[in-house]
Amino acid sequence: MPFLNTACAIALGLALAAASVRAHEGGNDAGFGQPGTAKSVQRTLTIVATDAMRFGPSAFTVRAGQTLRLHIVNDGKLAHEFVLGTDADIAAHAKMMRAMPDMAHADASAVRVAPGQAADIVWKFSMPGRFVYGCLLAGHFEAGMKGVVTVVREP
């Protein structure tokens, strides 16, 4: 079994490295954006994670091309995470989390936040569409800890 865990960890590391390379080259596995830079932030949105297994807000809208600082605040006594992506991204990440629940994030669109702490994600939303975010720690997403991002075309 240790071999299987090591193989999974290596595969995950390679996948994250590939996603990171694509992100730095201007693309992203998610297909709707890429990591932004602090100097390009156009607004900051605070998202609060609670032990009631909810995010506040549970939905927000952004214009395509806009860069946001997502300030994730863990208002609870449990660890939470914030993972941003497509439905397929979230499903794939949830599967990995079931296999490796203590997995550390090394991705620009995901962060784990300790109780009482906060973390930021700076993200440039580039493609119109409906995307999701959630906490994929065991049972959290299933209990309702998720939200929707609607990216609209620039006027």
Quick summary:
With 155 residues, the chain is an alpha+beta fold. The protein has two helices and ten strands.
Determine the N-to-C terminus distance.
54 Å
Low-confidence stretches: 3-29
Summarize the amount of helix as a percent range: 10-25%
Helix count equals 2
Shape designation: globular
What's the CATH H-level homologous superfamily?
A: Cupredoxins -  blue copper proteins
Average residue pLDDT: 83
β-strand amount: 35-45%
Known CATH architecture: Sandwich
Q: Order of helices and strands, N to C?
A: HEEEEEEHEEEE
Q: How many individual domains?
A: 1
Characterization of this structure:
The chain has a single domain (2-152), classed as Sandwich (Immunoglobulin-like), CATH 2.60.40.420. 23% of the residues lie in helices and 38% in strands. It is built from two helices and ten strands, in the order H-E-E-E-E-E-E-H-E-E-E-E. It has helices spanning 2-24, 87-99, and strands at residues 33-35, 43-50, 54-56, 59-63, 66-74, 80-85, 110-113, 118-125, 129-134, 146-152. The strands form two sheets. The chain has a five-stranded mixed β-sheet with strand order 1-8-5-2-3, with no helix packed on it. The chain has a five-stranded mixed β-sheet with strand order 4-10-9-6-7, covered by helices on one side. It is globular, with a radius of gyration of 15 Å.
